[in-house]
């Protein structure tokens, strides 16, 4: 009999225990031997059958030689970081949904796991129930991966979907997401991009083998997106999505989170509501995309149990999860990237616009037919932003400037 | 040093050798030891460096104790079946793209592999470069899977995309697909559904653990789809896709391949051109979808190399690929399924239609505005087909009757 423990029995942790007992026969068949849940670490009390497994002492888990696998669903850095380090050092595999911890301390924790011949696995930290970390490395990782772009935050995607489909304002859509439990009362981590940038840092680490400092990733959220942007994007044949992406250029990578216009024919453009999707672009395999529920108790629980099965079947550290520290100049500044911008303006006709922006592609229409927007030619983000600043000093008031991305 | 061989050096086989040498460092790092290609079995002659590996004798591979892994890209049953059986019996793992062989003889070949503690792997037989067989079992397979629905044939999907996007007739789109090399001169296996039904049989075998007899799967191709169907489906907010699907109902499964109307908001509806996608619906994980290039030399070669890495890393037979024979009444006849039909008619107004079909939802429009189509209420396929037959004896001429599926 093998034993595991769960630390943190909130939404995700309780999803793990529920799914474990529901699918135990299947899970044990895949592991090839019996598995039992021995401890649940939580500050709260538990009711029902699981209450016999409750402990308030981390040391009960750390010191129990029978416990080989620990599921960490506590979230945050403190005390999850300290606990994870000590568990790995003690020769226990750790499985986590804690994206903040993986993004910040992954390099160190993965190195400890490797040294101790155990596993630190984190499928559940990105894309909820979508298998993406495992297939990214295990199935396509030997290929030359050039780029990953994902819709990684379900809350933002829900809000943008309501703005596009139902013509809601951002505030109304956010309120609705909060009422439905898709958004927190303080929605900042979701709609300002911090959640997405942790996830893209993790995906980039897995795909390119080096730590990406999430704090250094260029990050814009969706707060500035207006109904006018939505109407004009739609008129031009585009969706607007919050995209996290990481792109290899030589030995360096560009990583960024920002809202972006995407052609409606793109598979990413049609990922709606709380769904997430991760597009992987390879030199030889072309575009591969993974789609599904980016959050939720049971989908996320499923990702954790998949990792638990992998860890229990492993005879040593899986090579599938490993990245190294990166040199200081590893990240290319987003301002150096060559992009196109969608620009919405007030004042100034087409001729005035082209005098400032050069040749552009105009989008006419939107709901009241009076707004003017256009797509610039490609240039570096820095130069395009300089032109935007310049035009504001002239008769053209730039209301929005949003990246257009080629997916 | 480990050695592998390739049998059949056509499009897929040459993709394997090309990708192997291109990504060899990455591949060997994942395997954890050196790997070399020793033989290429082909009737043709080879030029260049690979010619030194060419053999015309299967026995060279079978009898070489150094060869532990054999990639079979010959296609068809004879002699691939005999060769595969003998290789597995000899204790060599076999990796294949041969969907015909896996669908027909998978149960037996998997049993031999299990008995001999080697692997028979076939990621490349479904969805080209899309990782689907591996994640289906390895990442989400312990969950209760209820249903799989896929766009599994790139040729048909290319033709339907041209009909929808460019207003082409089926014949024109087929001709274009042939000119571009997406369709064979005899396109029957693709557009009449035989290719898709082999793939759905394999997916059903992996997901539900029992052999599905491809020959017994209800199969309709896309030949009957007309521009009028396309116009009216579009007017109603639907796409038409060739869908292969398998659905669990108790201890039995329903498997079918047919064209189907799908709501435009569905992720499957937006899979266009030669792309494939496989939607997996689970009780707890919800909808998960895998998307990518369903064919092509290097994408398919990538799937084979992923399996080669898995086989070389395995210490015994992977439980990930195993299914058993099924009882004789395992397949539920498609005629018993409760569905809705999209029906396009000539003659007879709305009232006459509802006299025969009961309450329906009319779609008006299409290109010339005169055609009439409707969606029936839900009933068994058998009863709906009987009503279609009845209406043809009255003043209503049914031009098309196409399933509407809830994805």
Structural commentary:
The structure is a homodimer of 407-residue chains. Chain A has 407 residues and is α/β, with parallel strands linked by helices. The first copy, chain A, has three domains: 144 residues, Rossmann fold, CATH 3.40.50; 161 residues, Dihydrodipicolinate Reductase, domain 2 (2-Layer Sandwich); 71 residues. Helix content of chain A is 36%, strand content 26%. Chain A has 14 helices and 18 strands. In chain A, the strands form two sheets. In chain A, strands 7, 8, 9, 10, 11, 12, 13, 14, 15, 16, 17 and 18 form a twelve-stranded mixed beta sheet that branches. A six-stranded parallel beta sheet of chain A has the order 3-2-1-4-5-6, with helices on both faces. In chain A, helix 1 packs across helix 12, helix 2 packs parallel to helix 12 and helix 7 packs across helix 8. The longest helix of chain A is centred in the N-terminal third of the chain and has 17 residues. The termini of chain A are far apart. The model of chain A has no long low-confidence stretch (mean pLDDT 94).
**Mind telling me the C-alpha Rg of chain A?**
23 Å
CATH homologous superfamily caption of the largest domain in chain A = Dihydrodipicolinate Reductase, domain 2
Unreliable stretches of chain A: none
Number of strands of chain A: 18
Helical content of chain A stands at: 25-40%
Strand content of chain A: 25-35%
General form of chain A: elongated
Top CATH class of the largest domain in chain A: Alpha Beta
Q: What is the first-to-last residue Cα distance of chain A?
A: 48 Å
- CATH fold-level assignment of the largest domain in chain A: Dihydrodipicolinate Reductase, domain 2
The greatest interface between two protein chains, and residues involved on each side, is: A-B, 51 and 51 residues
User: Biggest β-sheet of chain A, characterized?
Assistant: 12 strands, mixed
**CATH architectural type of the largest domain in chain A:** 2-Layer Sandwich
What is the typical, i.e. mean, pLDDT of chain A? Answer: 94
Please tell me the total number of domains of chain A.
3
Q: Helix/strand-derived class of chain A?
A: alpha/beta
Oligomer: homodimer
Given the structure, what is the number of helices of chain A?
14
